[in-house]
Amino acid sequence: MDLVNHLEGRLLFAVPKKGRLLQAALNLLEGADIQFRRENRLDIALVKNLPIALVFLPAADIPTFVGEGRVSLGITGRDTVAEHEAVVMALRKEQAESGKSTPQEDEGGCVEVMDLGFGSCKLQVQVPEKGSYVKPSDLIGKNIGTSFVHLAEEYFATLEAEADAANGTKSKKLKTKIIELSGSVEAACALGVADGIVDLVESGETMKAAGLKAIDTVVSSTAVLIKSKNPTNIDTVELVAARIKGVIAAQKHILCQYNVERSKLAAATKITPGKRAPTVNALEGDGEWVAVSSMVERKKIATVMDELTEVGAQDILVLEIANTR
Ligand SMILES: Nc1ncnc2c1ncn2[C@@H]1O[C@H](COP(=O)(O)OP(=O)(O)OP(=O)(O)O)[C@@H](O)[C@H]1O
Ligand SMILES: O=P(O)(O)OC[C@H]1O[C@H](OP(=O)(O)OP(=O)(O)O)[C@H](O)[C@@H]1O
């Protein structure tokens, strides 16, 4: 089938085609009942049950497609959105300096719809653990390896401006040399390509193994749902956003059910106040006891169970929530 000719009228939704965010993004789509079958080697998949076409793209390119309005919705890392914004800013500055017309602020760009709660990492300035660089300003005028060229340029431009202000000097050109690398950035210092790097850190294992330490954070990132400033199919954008929000809320919560004596109900429901209010039902044949059902934050459930037991709750059950609105 010629997929490109079947895109008319469909909302284009960009999803990372590989890498760290792929599986969690696919899980979200499944939870939101966005049904599709991706043919081998095809980067476009038509959604069977909604007027959507999924476009599988490298995470780093998604903000460009969304920012330019070619695709209306996307899942990517906040770091890639920040890099795209830095690219746009650099272009505007260049155009302004060369006297060419500058695009208006509202001409394009990405709008963050929601944090998706996975893919946490930090874009950090890293230097050799045993070297002489201690603080970010020690790297001014040195070689910096990174895949986030424009964020690194912005970062060092600010550092250099601060140093200039302190010294009463003024330099127009960036003294620090930003070297673009497309992967394995952590190897750059050991191999003599760079004095420091700007790269992503999650567990810190890669940084440690490469004998590096972080001395500053440029951006803290998680995966985000982004939309273009003027998306097509607004109703479908809102529907997808509401469904994804439901899936995320469900992932963050679990359902806690227990029985408790009516006299202890107030103390128990103080521990499990629920989303709006706990559901309380009389227990058949026992007027003194009630059954309580309440949504609880997943990360708090162990403490909640301890506290419920302390106030006399019994038969505590914890159940998964598949979805919620
Ligand atoms: N170690 C990590 N832990 C958590 N999230 C990460 C990590 N590394 C990257 N990310 C997030 O995932 C996004 C995609 O990175 P990833 O390296 O998986 O992409 P990729 O498309 O495979 O790129 P590349 O081919 O350059 O490695 C990043 O922009 C960032 O938001
Ligand atoms: O702190 P950690 O948990 O060790 O993760 C950080 C590493 O993950 C990313 O690289 P990735 O594995 O995607 O490979 P790449 O170097 O080819 O981009 C990033 O660029 C770091 O190298």
UniProtKB/TrEMBL annotation:
Belongs to the ATP phosphoribosyltransferase family. Residues 59-245 form the ATP phosphoribosyltransferase catalytic domain. Signal peptide: none annotated. This is ATP phosphoribosyltransferase. Residues 250-323 form the Histidine biosynthesis HisG C-terminal domain. Pathway: Amino-acid biosynthesis; L-histidine biosynthesis; L-histidine from 5-phospho-alpha-D-ribose 1-diphosphate: step 1/9. Pfam families: HisG, HisG_C. Its EC number is 2.4.2.17. GO terms for biological process: L-histidine biosynthetic process. Keywords: Amino-acid biosynthesis, ATP-binding, Cytoplasm, Glycosyltransferase, Histidine biosynthesis, Nucleotide-binding, Transferase. It comes from Hyaloscypha hepaticicola. GO terms for molecular function: ATP binding; ATP phosphoribosyltransferase activity; magnesium ion binding. The lineage of its organism: Eukaryota, Fungi, Dikarya, Ascomycota, Pezizomycotina. One of its GO terms (cellular component) is cytoplasm. InterPro entries: ATP-PRT_HisG_long, ATP_PRibTrfase_cat, ATP_PRibTrfase_CS, ATP_PRibTrfase_HisG, HisG_C, N-reg_PII-like_a/b, N-reg_PII/ATP_PRibTrfase_C.
